[in-house]
Amino acid sequence: MKNIVILGGGTAGWMAANLLQKKWQQRGIKITVVESPDIGIIGVGEGSTPLLKEFFDSLDISESEWMSQCNATYKNGISFNDWSTVTGYESYFHPFPCSLDFATFGLLYKYTELRRKGLDVLAHPNRFSLMAGLTERKLAPLPEKNFPFHFQYGYHFDSVLIGKFLRGKAKESGVSHIEATVENVEQETDGSIKSLRLNTGEILSGDFFVDCSGFASILLQKTLKVPFLSFSENLFNDSAVAVPTDIEAEVPAETLSTALTNGWAWKIPLTNRFGNGYVFSSNYCSQDEAETELRTHLGILDSEVEARHLKMKVGRVQESWAKNCLAVGLSQGFIEPLEATALQFVYSTVEQFSQALEEGNFTNQYRGEFNTRMNANFEGIRDYIVLHYKTNSRNDSQYWIDNRDNQKISDNLRAMIECWYAIEDMQEALTRLNIGSYYSQRSWTCLLAGVGVFPKQENLVIPDKEKAGKAMEDLKYVDDFINGCSMNFKSHSKLLF
Known about the structure:
By secondary structure, this protein is an alpha+beta fold.
């Protein structure tokens, strides 16, 4: 293999280019990115999981180098507001992991189990999470040097700027960049891709092609005819509308996800603005209705700030790697932006593909195993996303009722829900189903406990004095622990500015 052609720039294309260049430059493999100047970057979702830090670390790119150029901020996790109507559980925080979770989350599992058994004890996850405590205090996830514990965190960023930054880094490292539009894709007799005919008249040949052409999926879906498997039966949202607002003086270190009438609104803090949007289903409301509701939600109904409307294609391809082509980014699949997993898929896909290719001596020997892993990854993450909708307790619209009543869910998700209600061991179930690598016991517990999936308050039993006293002691320990740890962190805003 001598030439790899990447069709499409954007964040996905330039992430792939940087990773492959870093891995294979010494092998003499040439990486070329073909990017159309006429196609804009979608930019839905301006948040990430901790895997984005792993991506930058793998390229030896420091936060001080890229964050300021991309208006980036730190992200401790996501707050979910108004997904639940259960008193005391209207909001919860889904934190990223930290090495100190062992000190408090064991108690969370204990008290959620007691609550599931019908005992009236506090079981809201926020109380037990250091990352939730940092977020409430608007602290960044970077401890002082004398506090030697590991914290995972994500980022918020301007997706257009991060694409431009990565393009610059790739070109600096030797990646070739062609600005052109593909007019025709030429195939070999066995159906594999031979070359791209560009509008410049150039014919660009390659040994392997990476499809980063977005939802269009020009190479994998249109040329190679790889089927797309929709998730619309259990993820209803297919549209979004986005609009910016002014940033606040104290910049939060979290994404806000607030349930609205027919979907949910995101609020993402950058150094220069808030990115806002409404993810909704066009089967339940129109574009105009969604935009009006978002503007009302933000208090900018009469603002002249222009809104952008976007369509989403939610699902995955049947095979991410077919013949001599790999799909990365939106051409591969998309699970709506609720948990900001889009760039996580990009990074994990390229990493696992490069490993499979190398182990197979640059043949397709392990293509089948790779595709199986990718498909399982999409299914596993999809199930956790579906759980948000399945456990909602809103009755203000048919959208939320239909989501809650929807029975078209996977066997794995059904098993996890049954496990929770049956008061069985969640970790044992995750291990048995082999899905714990997608979301951990901590994440499942935070979601289910966070929205108050417990026996009704009127059915709970007051604990005896001994148990009540022990619970109070435990909670005091947790509060003191989180308060003490929080003293080792700086203000998010002061760190950024």
